[in-house]
């Protein structure tokens, strides 16, 4: 049907892996995550019918409608996707399982489910589209909102955030990564690696909500910029259609402009970083977070995971 489009080993084009048209807001980071998922499963030549997509509730959980899995999927109730995944994986271990969730779905109502999915080392890829707000219900703070973050109506969040990556490290997660929705160059290989991993593969994707994230006035994290910081590359533009992209080298930090003028500071792991050392990974992440930086890349892998 598309003679000019590139085909994978199965003779399928990227379009064959796409789902329905997105109803998310224009510029939403979640649509970039969908594009990265499509790219990864196309590149890996996974047959759509070998893929099972699972989600809970929230803007993030609509992502699974936008890529194809040959009909296998379950849009479950709020925070309960890991239970559905547990049942499905128990019934058929030969398929690829991709769960897409949000910070509300994962770190509030679904926190217990998330913890036990890690503890059980379920053989699945679990993507969090993390933006610190409940977008679907008009922008209330989620459990990953930074202290000092301001909501659209001006209220300030005074509660400390739950960090899913640090949580997964303490719970014994066997594959733990973080990325940014606008960095396809990093996100696609991470998704491919997560799909190949035998065990629970977590990718926490910082994915801006262009409608309700308003970080002006934050006291730390998202809007934190260290002055005169070595190797920081400032991206002083906001791309058309509010699409927020980031491209930065390994070992470098990058301050990315958000749609509202605030900034997020990302640091890509250096190639010399050893992801097999869980204790050092935890200490490194804490030290970078204290500087307002979100470390991105493959943060930890337990190579003994079956
Ligand atoms: Fe995306 Fe926010 Fe719009 Fe939801 S409300 S679709 S998270 S931009």
Automatic annotation (TrEMBL):
SUPFAM superfamilies: Thiamin diphosphate-binding fold (THDP-binding). Keywords: Oxidoreductase. One of its GO terms (biological process) is cellular respiration. InterPro entries: 2-oxoacid:Fd_oxidoreductase (IPR051457), THDP-binding (IPR029061), TPP_enzyme_TPP-bd (IPR011766). Its EC number is 1.2.7.3. It comes from the Bacteria. Residues 57-205 form the Thiamine pyrophosphate enzyme TPP-binding domain. One of its GO terms (molecular function) is thiamine pyrophosphate binding. It is an enzyme of class 1 (oxidoreductase). This is 2-oxoglutarate ferredoxin oxidoreductase subunit alpha. It comes from Steroidobacter denitrificans.
